[in-house]
């Protein structure tokens, strides 16, 4: 060890002592941060002393997979260096290496944040990078998945001897492997599992030619067996394949076939976990173990003994007679897996905790891509509690899911338990920073023994309770809805939700359709998918959402061939809501990197590329409704309106809006509302929804005043977003 690294290690030891003993904090990152400042090459120096190492990355499942793989490797190697607490940035890995020096450990198994792989892999040069999956996550931090793919590919190019063991069922992962020369080890589930496909997939487009992929079967999200009918790109042949996947009363059992040699070697695996995502995590851990020099014979024992980190997936049994299952989920795919768990157990009480701190991402639009509607299948759902810094947003999401049970705004898991009958189980799902307080409260309640007692809903202040037992009646304030005499239902057309689904546009559709239904206005929602004929002749409201660059480009090409239909609809006063990429697409052109993409020339606007992204909560004053419109923006494009176009509103926060300079946000062109605001925009801004509905009815010859609805939850969510955006 060179002198500089030795000094850095001593400084890290002091930082750990001060952080844990004086500040009473975990000390997972601070020691490594100090050490790296003094010796930037520390990971290479200390990691180079290990005989071998593996790194695990991906959106979901890193901590579980890393911990399980480390346990399996330790069974054969003795000591293993591992950042088990999930401190997965460069500093966290450095901390683990510093703390373990002198321990005699010969093997490393590290969890790494996706964006830090480009710094960690070239320094550590592990045997393998295990890539679990890539899902939309923290868009305001990570950006689009394309950016994450670029970072991981560059990390592999800088560490050419590192093999990439990747989930080949995920086309995002497979496309990274196809771009690099590193040895590839694809793994996946090689048979249909009969799972219900998620309503929203992050992308199902070909990485080679951008055509829609065909799937033989889908497990969840974009994971499955796929092939491009246009160019022939398909899921690679699997080196490790899960087969005979069976869900038993005790969890999943399956076989993992090692197909790398002349003969297949089969390893039987038994888990006590019943989520299909754990099949992937367990298989990936086995692959990491084998590539890291471990023995498959040690794996099942390690799996039997493994306990998820930090209370994840743990069942707490409290002295009050309650039991609580705590689950972490930080994006739509993760939440949907937890929703499936609740369904599997036919849960009665659910608590959802949503924070928007830096580590969570400030953009909460993703909650509208959670399939909460699947909880309607529960036979006796009695209550949904919501908590966290953005509990009001989650409450609105639950309201529009129409689950037929009360929604309770709570201050934490102990507060939520007061709505749960003794002897019943509460299923808790919390996102990243909301999860540790849940675990801390549950640990404390366990220590209290019988000191906790439940309190019935009737004992609570009425202001904290919102009844949702008779949606369509109880949401209407005091008077009968005015029902227009329509000869046919309002036709709401959602354009290309299979491609433009990045910013929770399902919430915009839900707001339009539910607010019509709650008033007794007949409506129907038609989806136009990629490759389908576009018919707007009898459309009343059209939604064109936002998507990733690649998906948006595919939609642009689709619409360019049918531009006249969109132009005619707008010229005839048609009502159209265009969000983010859809908004840009209506103009003359927009920029995708250095490429100029021809738009539809429907609006007289142009979008150039900015050097930075405009990201954050936004509020605007608009003539469309009385209250300011709130939402979240995340765009690099700088849109400029011609003199003949007028903005949707005036930005109330300097440096936000169309271009951050002229103070305008969006565009208002007859019946067209174009905007960068998502979140999505309509649920928190019911005035905008009602403006669109009234405009559509007026176009149909129905000039009526919409009856008021009980928008108390929407107003609460609006007020929270307003305070965040303006500081008021």
Distance between the termini: 54 Å
Any idea what the radius of gyration is? 26 Å
Strand content: 15-25%
Q: Pick out the low-confidence regions.
A: 456-479
Shape descriptor reads: globular
The tally of beta strands, per DSSP, is 30
Strand order of the largest sheet: 2-3-1-4-5-6-9-10-11
pLDDT average, as an integer? 89
Structural class estimated from helices and strands: alpha/beta
How is the biggest beta sheet arranged?
9 strands, mixed
Oligomer: single chain
What percent of the residues sit in helical stretches (DSSP H or I)? 25-40%
The number of helical runs is 21
Write a concise keyword list for the protein shown above.
7-stranded mixed β-sheet; alpha/beta; globular; 21 helices; 728 residues; 9-stranded mixed β-sheet
Structure notes:
The chain has 728 residues and is an alpha/beta fold. The chain has 21 helices and 30 strands. The strands form 6 sheets. A 9-stranded mixed beta sheet has the order 2-3-1-4-5-6-9-10-11, with helices on both faces. Strands 12-13-17-14-15-16-18 form a 7-stranded mixed beta sheet, sandwiched between helices. Helix 6 packs parallel to helix 8. The longest helix has 20 residues, at 3-22. It is globular. The termini are far apart.
List the helices and strands and how they pair.
Layout: H1 3-22, H2 30-38, H3 42-47, E1 52-57, H4 62-77, E2 80-81, H5 90-100, E3 107-111, H6 117-124, E4 128-131, H7 139-142, H8 145-157, E5 163-167, H9 171-179, E6 184-189, E7 214-220, E8 223-227, E9 240-248, E10 251-258, E11 265-270, H10 276-291, H11 299-305, E12 314-317, E13 323-328, H12 332-344, E14 349-353, E15 383-387, H13 391-401, E16 407-409, H14 413-417, E17 425-430, H15 435-448, E18 465-466, E19 490-495, H16 505-517, E20 523-528, E21 541-544, H17 549-560, H18 563-571, E22 575-579, H19 581-585, E23 589-592, E24 595-598, E25 605-621, E26 629-641, E27 649-651, E28 664-665, E29 667-669, E30 672-675, H20 686-699, H21 712-726
Parallel strand pairs: 1-3, 1-4, 2-3, 4-5, 5-6, 6-9, 13-17, 14-15, 14-17, 15-16, 19-20, 19-21, 21-22, 22-30
Antiparallel strand pairs: 7-8, 9-10, 10-11, 12-13, 16-18, 23-24, 25-26, 25-27, 27-28, 29-30
């Amino acid at each position: 060890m060179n002198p500089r690294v030795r000094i850095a290690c001593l400084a890290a030891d002091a930082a750990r002592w001060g952080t844990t003993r004086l500040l009473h904090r975990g000390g997972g990152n601070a020691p490594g941060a100090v050490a790296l400042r003094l010796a930037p090459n520390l990971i290479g120096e200390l990691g180079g002393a290990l005989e071998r190492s593996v790194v695990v990355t991906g959106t979901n499942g890193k901590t579980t997979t890393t911990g399980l793989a480390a346990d399996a490797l330790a069974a054969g190697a003795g000591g293993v260096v591992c950042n088990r607490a999930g401190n997965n940035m460069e500093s966290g890995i450095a901390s683990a290496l510093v703390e373990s020096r002198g321990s005699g450990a010969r093997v490393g198994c590290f969890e790494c944040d996706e964006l830090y792989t480009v710094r960690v892999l070239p320094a550590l040069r592990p045997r393998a990078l295990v890539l679990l999956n890539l899902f939309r996550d923290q868009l305001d931090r990570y950006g689009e998945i394309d950016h994450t793919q670029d970072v991981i590919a560059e990390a592999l190019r800088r560490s050419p001897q590192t093999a990439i063991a990747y989930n080949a069922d995920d086309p995002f992962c497979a496309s990274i492997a196809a771009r690099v020369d590193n040895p590839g080890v694809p793994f996946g589930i090689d048979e249909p599992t009969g799972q219900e496909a998620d309503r929203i997939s992050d992308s199902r487009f070909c990485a080679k030619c951008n055509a829609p992929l065909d799937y033989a079967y889908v497990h969840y999200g974009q994971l499955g067996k796929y092939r491009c009918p246009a160019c022939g790109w398909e899921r690679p042949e699997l080196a490790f394949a899960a087969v005979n996947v069976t869900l038993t009363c005790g969890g999943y059992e399956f076989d993992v076939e090692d197909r790398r040699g002349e003969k297949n070697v089969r390893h039987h695996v038994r888990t006590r976990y019943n989520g299909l995502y754990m099949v992937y995590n367990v298989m990936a851990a086995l692959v990491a173990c084998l590539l890291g020099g471990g023995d498959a014979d040690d794996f099942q024992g390690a799996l039997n003994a493994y306990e998820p980190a930090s209370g994840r997936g743990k069942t707490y049994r409290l002295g009050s007679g309650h039991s609580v299952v705590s689950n972490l989920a930080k994006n739509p795919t993760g939440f949907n897996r937890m929703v499936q768990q609740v369904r599997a157990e036919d849960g009665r009480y659910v608590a959802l905790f949503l924070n928007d701190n830096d580590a969570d991402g400030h953009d909460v639009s993703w909650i509208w891509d959670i399939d909460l509607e699947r909880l309607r299948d529960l036979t006796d759902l009695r209550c949904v509690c919501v908590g966290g810094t953005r509990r009001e947003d989650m409450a609105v999401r639950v309201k529009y899911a129409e689950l037929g049970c009360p929604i309770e705004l709570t201050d934490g898991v102990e507060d939520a338990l007061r709505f749960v009958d003794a002897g019943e189980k509460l299923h808790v799902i919390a996102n990243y920073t909301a999860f540790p307080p849940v675990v801390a409260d549950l640990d404390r309640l366990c220590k209290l023994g019988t000191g906790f007692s439940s309190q019935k809903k009737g004992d609570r202040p009425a202001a904290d309770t919102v009844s949702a037992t008779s949606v369509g009646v109880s949401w209407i304030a005091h008077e009968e809805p005015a029902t227009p005499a329509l000869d046919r239902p309002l036709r709401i057309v959602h354009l290309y939700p299979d491609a433009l689904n990045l910013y929770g546009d399902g919430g915009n559709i839900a707001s339009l359709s539910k607010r019509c239904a709650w008033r007794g206005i007949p409506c129907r929602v038609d989806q136009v998918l990629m490759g389908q004929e576009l018919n707007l002749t009898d459309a009343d409201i059209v939604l064109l959402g936002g998507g990733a660059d690649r998906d948006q480009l595919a939609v642009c090409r689709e619409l360019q061939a049918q531009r006249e239909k969109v132009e005619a609809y707008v010229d005839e006063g048609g009502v159209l809501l265009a969000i983010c990429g859809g908004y840009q697409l209506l103009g003359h052109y927009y920029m995708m990197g250095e490429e100029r993409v021809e738009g539809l020339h429907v609006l007289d606007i142009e979008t150039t590329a900015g050097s930075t992204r405009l990201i954050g909560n936004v509020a605007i004053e608009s003539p469309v409704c009385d209250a300011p419109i709130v939402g979240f923006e995340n765009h690099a494009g700088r849109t400029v309106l011609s003199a003949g176009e007028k903005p949707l509103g005036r930005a109330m926060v300097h440096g936000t809006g169309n271009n951050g300079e002229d103070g305008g946000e969006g565009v208002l062109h007859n019946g067209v509302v174009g905007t960068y605001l998502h979140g999505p925009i309509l649920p928190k801004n019911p005035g905008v929804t009602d403006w669109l509905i009234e405009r559509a009815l007026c176009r149909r010859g129905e000039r009526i005043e919409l009856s008021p609805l009980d928008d108390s939850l929407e107003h609460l969510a609006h007020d929270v977003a307003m305070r965040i955006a303006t500081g008021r």
